[in-house]
Amino acid sequence: MSPQNTYPLLTHCPICHALYAKENVKLVEEKESAKLYHSMCQECGHGLLAYVLEAPGGVSSLGLVTDASGVDIIRLGEEEPLTSEECVAAHQLLNEGSRELCRLLLDTSSKLA
Ligand SMILES: [Zn+2]
Predict the structure, then answer these.
(1) What pLDDT does residue 27 have?
(2) What does residue 75 show for φ and ψ, rounded to 5 degrees?
């Protein structure tokens, strides 16, 4: 039996409960007994990251709703993890420069429209 038939996180969208199309559930990464899947709901458009860990005593799974596409997940998986210093720097930048950031975002969005 394939994993897509076994785990509820890989068969139904947790947001709208639609059945996933088989081609919308993809194995992103596999390490020993742990697998990371990405699924995209064709009904509501939400994505889900599902981490499935198989152990002799059973199976554990954890799901995270995301707006990231399958391509984003692969790309982000290849990047180095953020450090705590980078998180603090981003927080400080947003705190101290939010007015300038908003101006830049508004300028960019008006150019796209
Ligand atoms: Zn859905």
Answers:
(1) 92
(2) -60, -45
